[in-house]
Design goal:
The chain is mostly helical. The chain contains 8 helices and 4 strands, in the order E-H-E-H-H-H-H-E-H-E-H-H. It has a two-stranded antiparallel sheet. Helix 6 packs across helix 7.
Amino acid sequence: MQKIIKQSIPKTQLLFEIKHSIQSIFIFGLSALLLIYLKRQGAILLLPNSFINIMVGIIILTIWNEIHFFIVHRVMHLPFFMKRVHKIHHHSKVPTVFAVYSFHWFEALLLSTVPLTIAVFIPLSAVAIFLYPLVSILLNFAGHCNYRFGNGKGPSWRLFGSKHNAHHFKFANHYGFASGIMDKLHKLIIPKINQRKK
């Protein structure tokens, strides 16, 4: 592993990240309570916790998270939200693992809705829903640890940690979560929409 940005992290940044992470984790926990409430109201159907249902559920949640995160992240980079909300997360120009959940409460609320916004339409197993945050946080650690896996070369999917790290430092590009697919689609679709408008 290779350190990406060789810059010391001030203690004030770490304290800032920890404070906002505790707040965000609390908000993420509230979304789990809402899931339980919706299940009790019959708005969410749960599949049996078989191995296949768990694996398919985690795959569905991973794909949906890519789409959901990209949309929320692009919105957060609009000037209004950047100045008032997303600046909390970008306070960490050189991210640390404590920056993973270092969000403004409103951004944490939006990001916490990944399972909520899909489970009402697609039945998932309870184990898949409650295991997914573990998958998500492991991917998030890779994007916020300021370390590059390997030498920084190879297929783009292996470089997502480096790309997200660069996003923090430069405030632009790499709006996707892990795969980079949404960034590529965005670059293909938006110019075509703009051409049609002309």
